[in-house]
Amino acid sequence: MSAPLLSSTDLFAPAPARTGRLGQLNAGVKLLATLLMTIGLLLVKDWVSVGSIFLLELVALRLLGLNPLKLLGTFWPILFAALLSGWSTSLLVEKTGETLIHWGVLWITTDSLTVGVTLALRGLALALPGLMLITTTDPTDIADSLAQTAKLPARFVLAALASLRLVGLMMSEWNVLGQARRARGLGSQDSLWQRLKTLVGQTFALLVQAIRRGTRLATTMEARGFGSGKRTWARVPTYSRADLWFFVGALAICAAGIGLSATAGTLLWMWQ
Amino acid sequence: MQTSPVPSFRSDTSSGASIVAENFGWHYPAHAQPVISEINLRIEPGEKVLLLGPSGAGKTTLLHAIGGLLHDEDGESQLGTLTLNGYTPEDARGVSGLMQQDPESSVVLARVGDDVAFGPENLQVPHQEIWRRVDESLAAVGLDHLALDHSTSALSGGQKQRLGLAGILAMHAGAILLDEPTANLDPEGVKEVRDAVLRAQRLTGATLVVIEHRVEIWAEYVDRVIVVNRNGITHDGTPLQVLQDARAELIAAGVWVPDYSPEFPAREAVAGDVLITAEKIAVTRQNPSRRIIKNRRADLLAGRSPHLGLQPVAQNLSVQVRAGEHLGILGPNGSGKSTFALTLAGLLLPVAGELTASPELSQGVDMKDPALRSDIASWKPADLASRIGLVFQEPEQQFIRSTVREELEFGPRHIARSRRQPVDETQLHVRVEELLERLRLKHVESANPFTLSGGEKRRLSVATALASAPRVLVLDEPTFGQDANTWKELVLLIRELLDESVAVISVTHDLDFVRAVGGRTFVLDSTHRVSTDAASRRAL
Predict the structure, then answer these.
(1) ipTM, two decimals
(2) What pLDDT does A233 receive?
(3) Which residues form the signal peptide (chain B) (predicted)?
């Protein structure tokens, strides 16, 4: 088995992808680029622009040292969801154009297939930058950029960051709670209703633990002078030439996809 | 970040804070009684104070008040006055630093350096100065060998507490306030944290106030011991004087005083029949996939000994569990003690080796094939719970009902329901009453388990396991963080169970406990360690 891209229980674990070229880019720039790509993709709805943006993303990520296909494989539920939405769309939209398949309720035409493929491609093209951001970025760095560059309230950003650290703890806590319930005799032989009750109880116990731990953590933070007042920052987000190129590259991919489609005369804006 | 050796803290920025209380108390408006009252004391800069008292005496409230963490929203909660260096604690932000019991709540951020820097950032220390303080503080607590971007989740409990201490030192706090800083740690962690605290105090000259119910950890190192109860301070003086004068009072309050351990008459160990046999088993924490479970079952049915492709934490474990005998499982942290016990209790699958229940124990198990009937790991939860009771380290993890009585009734009712048998209400009532009586829970029978005191929660968690009348009882760190009174009760209860020929297995660091209940011990040591070569090969 190869090392996972993200450790399942520790969101802050130093994943190999975080030390690569993408990992060294500024987190805020990556976040902004991802947002702009998302907006760009939501503005168009033809398969040429969406498809070419997706292809350019694949090439760009590959060049930056990330294997985009492996990335989609690791997060297969997203891949699955994109393909499924494409498939069901092609079955459900208005049937114009030539009929390709018509077996009973299964009726796909050239136009409905195009709409479906476009939707699936757009889903994948939207997912890739997001996955790149998650796998190559330490949450601490995003928080620094959000608080220091985007000037979001530090109190809010740091509280979110501190609680994110508890997610991994909650996962192992969940396992222990499950074992404790099995030791009490709850489990596989129970009725569906009983199992649902167990699940609700286990969730409640987890929440109680989480709230208590959260309260204690808040006490620690307050005891270390955390409040609404001004603060300085030990880490200063740095911006380099590489960040600029990355940002320009992201914009260029969007522009190239839309430009290509416009040249080919296939461009369809969202509102058209 | 380059590190340079820092001989000592700058004396101009950090010296001890003085703490003065006059008739101080705290009374929450909705409560009938104040949590604490009539506190009069003067702690000089650099003094080292141990704060003792029964649980519920308001020690934590007092410490939080000194730390400026209590806020008198309506202006009526605070009684008297309390000052830190002459200021109210709320105004003296950053003058004190507080550490709590749970190591997880000592860590705020994900990277070691960032976590230490968190306090200075909040106190608006300039950027360059922050990193100087981070280096200096990590060195003071002996964590300077760690990289600044080392993950805080990867630290041990003792290391997390030392990191929390470094965070306090980096604020250049004049008062270090510690609320049972070692209660959740194993003996090595206790020493490690205690030594780091004393070293840091020497370096900075900070005032130290520590709450702890195990007196011997701090007694010989502090200048002064203060004993409080709800009505004020009962003793205040040198450790020698106070521990002499207040000895009886402290023992009654369940405080562990030095050279005192509850006495028990020697017990004749009468081991009965073998109930569980483990033969060279390897144990793991990993969750098996459905496929692994299926293959294991097929192997057992075919008479083969299954070997699972999971990463073991310990191996070559052979032991016999006998009726009426106590088995203490000992060993350093991370040696796989708890994993071993959970495997014996049927909650985890053994990776390799034979783990079998005797015909006596497995009689009546709902499994047709004899190979599966003797395999504890294959039992259905209801069959398991009626034979092997398990008590987790944190009692709250096991509570599933909203009152103490329902909690005790749950096991027998659920097992009857699983077997589609009617519940014998009279018998159940008798059993529950007996447990309520025996474990002194009668007065809280309709209370919510989550609202009980620490000792009551511990007793209830043992009682719930006993409600299904198991032949084997497995306890994970039963005496961890318990006061001397609860400790004594546990020992007596377990001795009674042994007399009733229940087999008891305890995972523990507490040698006094093992001595008091008697029986055999099993020590996980180097012969059980899984070689790291094999481990890393398997992990790839």
Answers:
(1) 0.84
(2) 94
(3) none
Q: Is residue B183 part of a domain?
A: yes
Number of domains in chain B: 2
Residue B298 at interface with chain A, using a CB cutoff of 8 Å: no
B289 touching A (Cβ < 8 Å):
no
Q: Are residues B434 and B471 in the same domain?
A: yes
Number of H helices, E strands in chain B: 18, 17
- DSSP letters along chain A, please? -PPPSS-SS-TTS--GGGGSTTTTS-HHHHHHHHHHHHHHHHHB--HHHHHHHHHHHHHHHHHTT--HHHHHHHTHHHHHHHHHHHHHHHHHS---S-EEEEETTEEEEHHHHHHHHHHHHHHHHHHHHHHHHHHH--HHHHHHIIIIIS---HHHHHHHHHHHHHHHHHHHHHHHHHHHHHHTT-STTS-HHHHHHHHHHHHHHHHHHHHHHHHHHHHHHHHTT-SSS----SS-----HHHHHHHHHHHHHHHHHHHHHHHHT---BTT-
Locate the domains of chain A by residue range. 16-143+238-264, 150-223
* B342, B347, B381 ranked by CB distance to A188: nearest: B381
Range of the domain at B513: 274-284+312-539
What would the pLDDT profile of B462-505 be if each residue is shown by its tens digit?
Answer: 999 999 899 999 999 998 878 888 888 899 999 999 999 999 99
* Contact criterion met (CB < 8 Å) for A185 and B468: yes
pLDDT tens track for A261-271: 999 999 999 88
When pLDDT is cut at 50, 70 and 90, the band that residue A58 belongs to is very high
The mean of the pLDDT values for chain B is: 89
The CATH number of residue B327's host domain is 3.40.50.300
* Whether residue B208 sits in one domain with residue B72: yes
B154 CA to chain A: closest CA distance, Å? 9
Section B261-282 average pLDDT? 85
Has residue B50 been placed in a domain?
yes
The pLDDT tens digits of the residues spanning B78-114 come to 999 999 999 999 888 889 999 999 999 999 999 999 9
Q: pTM here?
A: 0.84
- B279 with B246, same domain? no
Q: Is pLDDT of B5 > 90?
A: no
B497-539 pLDDT, tens digit each: 999 999 999 999 888 899 999 889 999 988 888 765 444 444 4
Residues of B in contact with A185 (CB under 8 A): 381-382, 384-386, 411, 414-415, 418, 468
Percent of chain B having pLDDT more than 90?
65
The answer on B527 and B391 residing in a single domain is yes
Instruction: Tell whether B535 and B433 lie within a shared domain.
Output: yes
Which of B125, B134, B385 lies closest to A185 in CB terms?
Answer: B385
Interface touch A236/B107, C-beta < 8 Å? no
One domain, residues B165 and B280: no
Write the pLDDT tens digit of every residue in A135-166.
888 889 999 999 999 999 999 999 999 988 88
Using a CB-CB distance cutoff of 8 angstroms, which residues of chain A are in contact with residue B392? 176, 179-180, 183
Q: Are residues B102 and B43 in the same domain?
A: yes
Selected for mutation to probe chain B from A175, A177, A224, A230 (highest B CB count within 10 Å) is A224
The helix (run of H) or strand (run of E) holding residue B157 is: helix B157-170
List, in order, residues 6 or more apart from B46 with CB less than 8 Å away: B15, B16, B205, B206, B207
- pLDDT attached to residue B485: 85
Residues B381 and B530 both lie in one domain:
yes
How large a percentage of chain B has pLDDT more than 70?
A: 96
User: Which residue is closest to B105 within chain A, CA to CA?
Assistant: A217
Chain A residues near residue B395 by CB distance under 8 angstroms: none
Question: By the 8 A CB rule, do B429 and B405 touch?
Answer: no
Interface test with A, best of B84, B91, B95, B105 (most A CBs within 10 A): B105
